[in-house]
């Protein structure tokens, strides 16, 4: 799929204020600093579209970007950022949970996992929660450029094995690097196929 246009539309904290209409949307979630905003910029080919930062906790709102005037990418705040304090953390969780559970237009949630780390409890619990709530999702391993190829496939393989303890069938999964534009074609094709099925 070609990206002909990508425009920022609105940021907000309330799912009820998200754009009206029936366009499908694809949201990106994961721990703070996992690379959500960078991935959105890589996919759209627009460097400064979503704000990125080396300090976790950059994205605090639900951000809608209209792509090719036909579908939305949604950048969500990261979960599990301790330095926000308990109140801030709970507020972010409320935003994330209400968006995921209430937003009917949300067609697929991409759950980003840092490919360098062992499976983390916070991500596994989040994925379990998605399962309990019947949320459609796919996994995206990020920052592949920071790993040697052997270690990368060992890590992602271990991750999928861990998930198999909980799931009979594994979710779709993608290996990406925003630095090297790895996984771009695969992700855009996946989205394109879903969009075509919805028509
Ligand atoms: P929050 O909005 O704070 O939740 O973070 P985020 O998940 O949106 O992460 P963001 O895209 O802001 O990236 C966090 C840091 O990781 C930045 O310093 C990025 O440059 C870096 N980063 C993101 N993706 C990659 C990648 O594929 N490779 C490398 N090497 N660094 C990356
Ligand atoms: Mg971000």
Description:
The structure is a single chain. The protein has 199 residues and is of the alpha/beta class. It has one domain (6-198): P-loop containing nucleotide triphosphate hydrolases (Rossmann fold, 3-Layer(aba) Sandwich), CATH 3.40.50.300. The protein is built from five helices and seven strands; from the N terminus they run ββαββαβαβαβα. The protein has a seven-stranded mixed β-sheet, with helices on both faces. β3 and β4 form a beta hairpin. The mean pLDDT is 93. Residues 30, 32-38, 52-54, 56-59, 77-78, 142-143, 145-146, 177-179 line the site of guanosine-5'-triphosphate (GTP).
Give, in spatial order, the strands making up the sheet with the most strands. Answer: 1-3-4-2-5-6-7
Strand content: 15-25%
Small molecules (ligands, ions, cofactors) in the structure: guanosine-5'-triphosphate, magnesium ion
- Calculate the terminal CA-CA distance, rounded to whole Å: 16 Å
The best one-word shape is: globular
Look at the helices and sheets and give the structural class: alpha/beta
Order of helix and strand elements from N to C terminus: EEHEEHEHEHEH
The second-level CATH architecture is: 3-Layer(aba) Sandwich
Mean pLDDT: 93
Largest sheet: 7 strands, mixed
The CATH homology group name: P-loop containing nucleotide triphosphate hydrolases
Radius of gyration: 16 Å
Residue share in helix: 25-40%
| Low-pLDDT segments | none
User: Do you know the CATH topology?
Assistant: Rossmann fold
CATH class identity: Alpha Beta
Per DSSP, the total helix count is: 5
Strand count: 7
The domain count comes to 1
